[in-house]
Amino acid sequence: xxxSGPSGAKRGIPVKSExxxxxxxxVEIADLVDKRYPIKGMDVWxxxxxxxxxxxxxxxxxxxxxTNHQEYRFPLLVPEDLLDKENKLVSILKAARESGVDPxxxxxxxxxxxxxxxxxWVTHGGENKLEMxxxxxxxxxxPMYTMFSLWVRSHADLPLKTFQIVNTFRYETKQTRSFIxxxxxxxxxxxxxxxxxEGADEQMEEDAEMVQRIMHDLCLPSLVSxxxxxxxxxxxxxxxxxxxxxPNGRTLQVATYHHYxxxxxxxxxxxxxxxxxxxxxxxxTTFGMSERLLGAVVGMHGDDKGLILPxxxxxxxxxxxxVASHKDENVIPAAQNLCRELVSKGxxxxxxxxxxxxxxxxxxxxxKGVPIRVELGPRDISSGKCVTTMRTGGKSEINLxxxxxxxxxxxxxxxDELRTRASSLISDLVRAFPLDSISEDQTMDSLIEDGIxxxxxxxxxxxxxxxxxxxxxxxxxxxxxxxxxxxRKCIVTGESTLKRCxxxxxx
Length: 507
Hints:
The structure is a single chain. This protein has helices spanning 19-29, 47-66, 80-99, 141-151, 197-217, 263-267, 292-301, 331-344, 358-367, 378-383, 403-429, 462-472, and strands at 33-34, 44-45, 70-71, 77-79, 121-125, 128-136, 160-169, 184-194, 223-226, 238-245, 251-261, 271-273, 279-281, 283-290, 318-322, 349-351, 372-376, 385-390, 395-399, 430-432, 453-457, 475-480, 488-489, 496-497, 500-504. It is an alpha+beta fold. The strands form 6 sheets. An 11-stranded mixed β-sheet has the order 3-7-8-14-11-10-9-22-25-21-20, with helices on both faces. A 5-stranded mixed β-sheet has the order 16-15-17-18-19, sandwiched between helices. The chain folds into 3 domains: 29-300, Bira Bifunctional Protein, Domain 2 (BirA Bifunctional Protein, domain 2, 2-Layer Sandwich), CATH 3.30.930; 318-413, 3-Layer(aba) Sandwich (Rossmann fold), CATH 3.40.50; 430-504, 2-Layer Sandwich (Translation Initiation Factor IF3), CATH 3.30.110.30. The protein has 12 helices and 25 strands. The two termini are 21 Å apart. The chain is 33% helix and 25% strand.
């Protein structure tokens, strides 16, 4: 990723090779958020960051509307009894999975799972103590499914495909980090209801496709895997996730989709009448993303000079900077005309007419990661050409006539370049594990490199996975969608398998 040495740092930005220092600095220097709000993990979104996040939301909405989802908005407050209901269900499902039995065989009231330890409670309305405490939503299964049971009556009501983009709240106890680990989460969640398992299966495939389309627009390659049982949401039948490998080799989970089968429907009385008049339980899925997508963009594409934003989510795709306007009164009008032309062609363009030195403008927009900077001065007007600078590197001249199409082509070029760079980084950081097998008495210290994601063939059980994680010191992400083309020996069991897994340190 063209990470430069110390000489590349500007404006107090740590070098990217020191990622743990670079990342928190850059999100503030680039004016995405202000972290000084007096509640840890609750940043103040600033206009530039909020606009970029809004553009990510627009990508999600595009995919939702394309696949016939409808947007809803559910209340922020949830009564305590719904959380108790969820916790009971999740605890039973978790215990059933661990015991290898059907959930219907278990009957107990245990609070071993769920969100109860993570929620923010509301106990008073004004000076009056509430009869039933409420909490701020950590996610929306319980309030949504309570309403779904009122809306779904017949097979004609299915499939029900919903989504919302809201803030959720979780009492995060680990070290917070902007966009990556926060307490107030900008959250996208889609919830669907289907007549049968096959309908939910198809939805999971559709979710996977939508994730990859969004990741393509963000120029982010990802590792997609079916999470192991112990890392599956206890209320899910199974979970799939997309992870981005950050430059320090840690993986960041940016999208998750759960197949619930009919497990939640039974608890929330979510059923329908089929064409023959029989009552049947519904099957459900959930798909979630968050501002982690913006964190992944910042971490993956930025460099020692600041952000590099993909054109798809750059608040300004092109910034026009008048040069020597004090020498020629035609410069500002020409720059204004160019800006209007670009906007009319769908380009998010901005005219920077500040009375400051050109170098200041260049540095400011470089830090903010604007894809293209355009200089326009008296000589450019005379020649009918202007100088452009791409944030990914390189300067070129373009003709003022038909400038919009040339700039659109350059934006596409920048996106392709970012995808190439990101894929190259993944290739450098993801490697095959150096051993074909692992035994109890082997020492791993000299073999495991910090900041590397290891690819392994693995088809073992939970105890094999636990042994593997303890031995290597990394987390098993799960079984990848892309299996091996030819059978290999499982690194633990020695059995032949096509299953391809990754192990990494996770955020």
